[in-house]
Amino acid sequence: MSTIVVPTGFSYVAAAMMSTIFLLAGQIVTVSKHRALAGIAYPQLYADKEQMAASPAAAKFNRAQRVHQNTVEYLPGLYLMTILFGVKYPVLAASSLGLWVLGRVAYGVGYVVGPPENRNNIVTVICATPSLLTLIGGATYSTYQLVAAGV
Predict the structure, then answer these.
(1) CATH, residue 83
(2) Residue 83 sits in which domain range?
(3) Which one of 2, 18, 41, 105 is separated from 72 by 20 to 30 angstroms, measured CA to CA?
(4) Phi then psi for 150, rounded to 5 degrees?
(5) What are the φ/ψ torsions at residue 46 (nearest 5 degrees)?
(6) Counted domains in the chain
(7) Does residue 2 sit within a domain?
(8) Is residue 4 part of a domain?
(9) Mean pLDDT, to the nearest integer, of 101-116?
(10) Residue 67 domain flag
């Protein structure tokens, strides 16, 4: 039987991954609130053009829904990269994911509250993009190290 050794500090990776659950929960609340304000009934995923023309609330609902959907699209890759990176560098991996979450909060607020152009605000640019690049590079390097070590 094989044994998996979790590196010291890997609990930070777990905590950072849990932060994404709170991010998603907040986005779900936001989508639900804007769905109700716009009067968009389930199972309709987005407001159509007529609904958006009739109500600014419908456009906000669409933006809130898109932020949530976009976050869900990112998560499988982020989880994999964070775990791979975290096997060798858990604190850096956790910090990178935590910064990405902070950037996603700013992205969501900017996108839903204001015009769509506000989604790429200074916090998003400083946090989300560099942290995503760090996760990609770190996961790649950690994987290389694991392969080179024959693990």
Answers:
(1) 1.20.120.550
(2) 10-148
(3) 41
(4) 75, 25
(5) -135, 155
(6) 1
(7) no
(8) no
(9) 89
(10) yes
Chain CA centroid to CA 134, Å? 15
> How far apart, in whole angstroms, are the C-alpha atoms of residue 94 and residue 28?
23
The secondary structure of the chain, three-state, reads CCCCCCCCCHHHHHHHHHHHHHHHHHHHHHHHHHHHHHCCCCCCCCCCHHHHHHCHHHHHHHHHHHHHHHHHHHHHHHHHHHHHHHHHCHHHHHHHHHHHHHHHHHHHHHHHHCCHHHHCCHHHHHHHHHHHHHHHHHHHHHHHHHHHCCC
**Dihedral sign computed on CA atoms, order 140, 120, 69, 23:** positive
Mean pLDDT throughout 87-95?
96
Residue 142 falls within a domain, yes or no?
Answer: yes
Lowest-confidence region among 13-17, 27-31, 97-101, 121-125: 121-125
Cβ-proximal residues to 127 (8 Å cutoff; 6+ apart), any chain: 99, 100, 102, 103, 106
